[in-house]
């Protein structure tokens, strides 16, 4: 499973750390991530506010799970509305989880 964690804080690091312990997870990406996440996954240069870039990344890398951290405001709306609706949400195998 390919997972994207959106955010750069300690909460996102803890999520990535636990995901990394799963035998089901093959690759972890983070936008933008942090040094702790970089030790277990790949940090992608970008901003959590750049919804279009994140949605395009999700499409290009055919992600299985996207974890939206607390600072990913507006991203879920972007995924639920517009041309990406069928890809990001309600399209197997990608799921979206919002962490508050």
Question: What does this molecule look like?
Answer:
With 100 residues, the chain is of the alpha/beta class. The chain is 36% helix and 22% strand. The protein has five helices and five strands; from the N terminus they run E-H-E-H-E-H-E-H-H-E. It has helices at 10-20, 35-38, 51-61, 75-80, 85-88, and strands at residues 2-7, 27-32, 42-43, 65-68, 95-98. It has a five-stranded parallel beta sheet with strand order 3-2-1-4-5, sandwiched between helices.
Sequence-ordered SSE layout with sheet pairings:
Layout (H helix, E strand, L loop, with lengths): L1 E6 L2 H11 L6 E6 L2 H4 L3 E2 L7 H11 L3 E4 L6 H6 L4 H4 L6 E4 L2
Parallel strand pairs: 1-2, 1-4, 2-3, 4-5
What key phrases describe this protein's structure?
5 strands, alpha/beta, 100 residues
Give a short synopsis of this structure.
It contains five helices and five strands; from the N terminus they run βαβαβαβααβ. With 100 residues, it is an alpha/beta fold.
> What kind of sheet is the major sheet?
5 strands, parallel
Unreliable residue runs: 81-93
Structural class designation: alpha/beta
Q: Count the DSSP helices.
A: 5
Mean pLDDT across all amino acids: 78
Q: In what range is the share of β-strand residues? A: 15-25%
Cα distance spanning the termini: 23 Å
Rg, rounded, reads 12 Å
Encode the helix/strand succession as letters: EHEHEHEHHE
Q: Tell me the total number of β-strands.
A: 5
Task: Give the strand order, joined by hyphens, for the main sheet.
Answer: 3-2-1-4-5
What is the helical fraction, as a range of percent? Answer: 25-40%
